[in-house]
Amino acid sequence: MDERFTTKKASHNYNTRKRDLPSLPYIMKQTWTDSLFIHYPVNQQVLQKYVPDVLPIDTYDGMGWISVVPYLTSSMKLRGFPSIPGARQFPGYNVRTYVIVNGRPGIYFFSLTAANLIASTAARFFFRLPYYYLEIYMDNHNELVNFHSKSIKNSGAQLICNYKPISKPNPAAKGSLDEWLVERYCLFTITKKGVPLRCNILHRSWLLQDVEVEIHKNTILSALNISPATNEVIMHFSKRADVSIWPLVPAIYS
């Protein structure tokens, strides 16, 4: 089944975000390219069933959101080291929702996939994230991105789509839902004992473009047994983000 959508237009103070960082050096740099954001509205109560209670769901006008984000990691480099051999360029996608902890908005990941065994294993170990290695095909011809993932074993989650930007890049309007969805600069996870942890990231504000999308198969939400609250779908494209990543720190006291 094919679906076609078009989207809207994120801004945040870069220096303010710098002041919010923990007093530790970053540990990794990555570059993300050809990112597609597919945002679905989901009732807050539904989402909270799947998210630890210590990570309250964040809402916009009372509504929670879940997003599927395919993208290409086009570089990965540990601080003080050259690019990681075998992990320089690989596609992946993540499935995320939005939480707020100790007054700080961030992201909670249901799952992340990467077509690279080294990267997925390291992220699972060092960042306590539900990362999976998965065969994924992705290419870009004349700005048309083709993305084809295999299904995740035991869940059937699969994404097959192609997409193309159709406008000039702009930051999202201040205070808009678009800004709320993409301008998030930390992720949250928990320890085995349920203690919340935070990982900060830093990059320039997302430059977003309207996007035309054909979805040939998307079973990601159904694999989670989550249904959107409405038929409203918001999509964004962003060509590139150069990202610095910090180590995990306690979420509440830092």
UniProtKB/TrEMBL annotation:
<protein>
    <submittedName>
        <fullName>DUF2071 domain-containing protein</fullName>
    </submittedName>
</protein>
<dbReference type="InterPro" id="IPR023375">
    <property type="entry name" value="ADC_dom_sf"/>
</dbReference>
<dbReference type="Pfam" id="PF09844">
    <property type="entry name" value="DUF2071"/>
</dbReference>
<dbReference type="InterPro" id="IPR018644">
    <property type="entry name" value="DUF2071"/>
</dbReference>
